[in-house]
Amino acid sequence: MPQILKVWTAVAALSLMLVWPAPVSRTAASPEVQASFPAFPVTVNGTVTDQTHSQYPLLLYRDIIYFPMTWNYTSSLGLAVSWSKENGLSLDKKDGCVPLAQDLTAEVNANIGGSQAAVPAPFPVKVNGKTIVNADEPYPVLLYRNIVYFPMTWRFAYEEFNWKTSWNDVRGFAIQSCARPDDEERTQAEALNLANGGQLAVKDGWVYMNPYHWSEGAHQLVKSKPDGSSKTKLSDDKATSINVVGDWLYYIASEPRKPNAIYKIKTDGTERTLVSQTNASGLWVRDGWMYYLRLAERSGNENAPYYTPGGIERMRMDGSEKQTLLSNMDHIKYFFLQGERLYYLTGEGEKKKLYVMGNDGSGQTELQDNVTEIRIIDGWIYYVKDGKQLRKMSSDASIDIPLHESARTPLFGLNYRDGWVYYVSGGFGISGYASMERIRLDGTGRQALAEARATALYIAEDQLYFPDWSMGDRTMYHMKIDDPQP
């Protein structure tokens, strides 16, 4: 249960009744005003909010955004809040803030077209020690659903709290009380590209990729600008799971009739080095460790060997200290690293399950059934259920929110940028095409972008990259991500 500034409790109501004469009604003392829910995106310190499913949705009153003074919002905005029945509400700017943790529910809370009744707060309010005469304010502090709502006017946002705000017809309203750490946003973007196979990675304005993932023929590891210009060949490797770590690329290279191996190379194409001969796939490099799926050799028809995942391992970046996190797990399909947590999918017969454990292999817990794909975006697990339902849930799986059910299956290739979840919808076979689409993170505004035989989606700044499948070969193409229509 989140900590909430609920001032309209029985105690607070009683204290107000002691001030006001008993015959005076609450309506007479504080006449209702009609607010609404914002019909545009709102971003807080780089996190795009989901107002559709918010337990405490933002309000719009006289064209001014109002924020609920819940624990999560005040912590994210860097506000110290205090309340007493004698002194009322006090808001003070403090040093530092934390990433926004959103209080969401599975129900749709924000009816965009509906009018919402609120009342001006009938108690004293102070901002940075200065008394606010709420009755004289053109944008008063409001009470809505027993929660205090505060206006983000120029006077308060700029002059009192020294925040930055911006407005864009497409991206909506944004407020910045603290800068989002660059490495946090970059790490999330890197993880989403890795989760799609890592055929492409981005850092410092450069794209590192394998543009031709062919079953036979020549391959290249190249770098270029996001728009495809300034392309430079780095090596002849058939590279996947490309990680950029400082001035190095770590990746998996595969050759016909040979096990995979982990290599590293400088971003300028020099010092190509074998790190480990371990037969691996799905490489993630994090905090001095290399995590990967260990491939086990199996016997196929006419004793021709093939390889399938046999567990999850990690080793140091120099190939030392190999550790087994999960062993004898032939049904592991995929994993996703998020901080100190490792999420993984299994295919146990016809059942596909999502588990989570510590990144050291401890504390394995089952989270969800029938999951075919997952991504972690701003602390929420976005996943595909039964190959067709796009959903998101809290990290402990206690809140599960349906977003979209596709008529074309399967749904896969999830990625994210600026409040939009990108995905591929539909199979294509030899001659068909799938649909590359996007949808807002609250499940609204779905848009079809293009038809292609895309096997994954990668994002490099304002470019959407996708490997296009043709008879087993995958050639990388890209298109500019145009801003959606408001």
Task: Characterise this structure.
9% of the residues lie in helices and 48% in strands. It folds into 2 domains: 167 residues, no CATH class; 221 residues, TolB, C-terminal domain (Neuraminidase). With 486 residues, it is mainly β. Strands 1-8-11-12-5-4 form a 6-stranded antiparallel beta sheet, with no helix packed on it. Strands 3-2-14-13 form a 4-stranded mixed beta sheet, with no helix packed on it. Strands 6-7-9-10 form a 4-stranded mixed beta sheet. It comes from Paenibacillus elgii.
How are the SSEs ordered, and which strands pair?
Blueprint: H1 10-19, H2 26-29, E1 33-36, E2 42-44, E3 47-48, E4 59-61, E5 64-68, H3 71-77, E6 79-84, E7 88-93, E8 115-120, E9 125-127, E10 130-132, E11 142-144, E12 147-151, H4 154-160, E13 164-168, E14 172-176, H5 182-195, E15 200-203, E16 206-209, E17 212-213, E18 221-224, E19 232-235, E20 239-245, E21 248-253, E22 261-266, E23 273-276, E24 280-286, E25 289-299, E26 305-316, E27 323-327, E28 332-338, E29 341-348, E30 351-358, E31 365-369, E32 371-377, E33 380-385, E34 389-393, E35 400-405, E36 411-417, E37 420-425, E38 434-440, E39 447-452, E40 458-460, E41 463-470, E42 473-480
Domain Prolow-density lipoprotein receptor-related protein 1-like beta-propeller: 193-479
Signal peptide: 1-28
Pfam family, one: DUF5050
